[in-house]
UniProtKB/TrEMBL annotation:
HMA domain segment(s): 14-83
GO cellular component: a single term: membrane
Highest taxon listed in the record's lineage: Eukaryota
Principal location listed in the UniProt entry: membrane
Protein name stated in the entry: HMA domain-containing protein
PANTHER family on file: HEAVY METAL-ASSOCIATED ISOPRENYLATED PLANT PROTEIN 47
GO molecular function: metal ion binding
Annotated signal peptide: none
């Protein structure tokens, strides 16, 4: 967390993580979403991409590599596509 002295607002730095996964069925999609949501520090989980083959996770201090590895072990093919910081004003 950071503190801006100029306007006295707190800036929270969150991560946006995009993981590409193979989701051949609804059950696999549901399982992957549940696993991503249960990870430590996760605030939101959503599906993205034209084929809904990307999981977008937003949270604080999320272990992106660990989450990708977990999805790879439990669901199947998974690759880490993007990790970027997102600032949120509180």
């Amino acid at each position: 967390m950071g503190f801006l002295a100029s306007d006295k607002r707190i800036m929270l730095l969150q991560q946006k993580i995009v993981i590409k996964v193979q989701l051949p069925c609804r059950r696999c999609r549901s399982k992957a979403m549940k696993m991503a949501a249960m990870a430590s520090g996760v605030n939101s989980v959503a599906l993205a991409g034209e084929e809904k083959d990307q999981i977008v996770v937003v949270g604080e201090n999320v272990d992106a590599a660990g989450l990708t590895d977990l999805l790879r072990k439990k669901v199947g093919y998974a690759t880490l596509e993007l990790v970027v910081g997102v600032s949120v004003k509180a």
